[in-house]
Amino acid sequence: MKKLTATLGIFLMFIASTFAQESASAIETAGAEMTFESDVIDYGTIPQFADGVRVFKFTNTGKAPLIISGAKGSCGCTVPTWPKKPINPGESAEIKVKYATDRLGPINKSVTVTSNSSEPTKVLRIKGNVIKKETTPVKKASEMTPTAG
User: Fold this and answer.
1) What is residue 24's predicted lDDT score, i.e. its pLDDT?
2) 35-131: CATH homologous superfamily?
């Protein structure tokens, strides 16, 4: 009788855990979902001190409000700002990224976004190249004096 009771108890626990897993996965699929127009922004070749602000546009394609809990750049030269209010299903929003264009050379940085989305951590990338800003050449005094010829 003890074996029958123990076997029945184990069987009931197995059935209960199966139903618990199914309901948890049903909640996950019914949640928020971030769909980006693009997860990479290419600055191209830009001059030093140019406007470093770019925008990642996205839509909540899920069935629950999307809440972004944070966004962090891979270094101090990449500063993201994100919506602090929930984004309802079907609504669109933006994550702005400001890159410090005072730094010369290639850009290859990331922004990590955390949310309640079906993909809770999303990595966005920015790339490009910052070149020295060209200035108008100043003529030397010796070039400006006429020569007799």
Assistant:
1) 43
2) Immunoglobulins (2.60.40.10)
